[in-house]
Amino acid sequence: MIVDLRTYTMVPGRLKAFLELYESEGLPIQRQHLGEPIGYFTVETGPQNQVVHLWGYESAADRERRRSAMESDPAWIAYRRKSAEAGNVQHQENKLLRSVPFSPL
């Protein structure tokens, strides 16, 4: 299993706006292509104004296939444009995690 761990740091004061736009417009498109996320969180302690989410894939090839389909979806392209214009995200970091044999996932 591959887990895509994504951390987005928001412009201070823009977290709520990001979550509202994402929940109403971005998440439905991602669910269509990627399925349900493993988890979607806001940071309570440590660096503030962050959203952390995890997506699971069978393999790197599975991730590439699903994300490529999503990236070519006109609805996703429109959402990304709208999200960028809103100016909510300050920084993004992605990590691909590979499960070890004794991992419960």
From TrEMBL:
<protein>
    <submittedName>
        <fullName>NIPSNAP family protein</fullName>
    </submittedName>
</protein>
<dbReference type="InterPro" id="IPR051557">
    <property type="entry name" value="NipSnap_domain"/>
</dbReference>
<comment type="similarity">
    <text>Belongs to the NipSnap family.</text>
</comment>
<feature type="domain" description="NIPSNAP">
    <location>
        <begin position="4"/>
        <end position="104"/>
    </location>
</feature>
<dbReference type="InterPro" id="IPR012577">
    <property type="entry name" value="NIPSNAP"/>
</dbReference>
<dbReference type="Pfam" id="PF07978">
    <property type="entry name" value="NIPSNAP"/>
</dbReference>
<dbReference type="InterPro" id="IPR011008">
    <property type="entry name" value="Dimeric_a/b-barrel"/>
</dbReference>
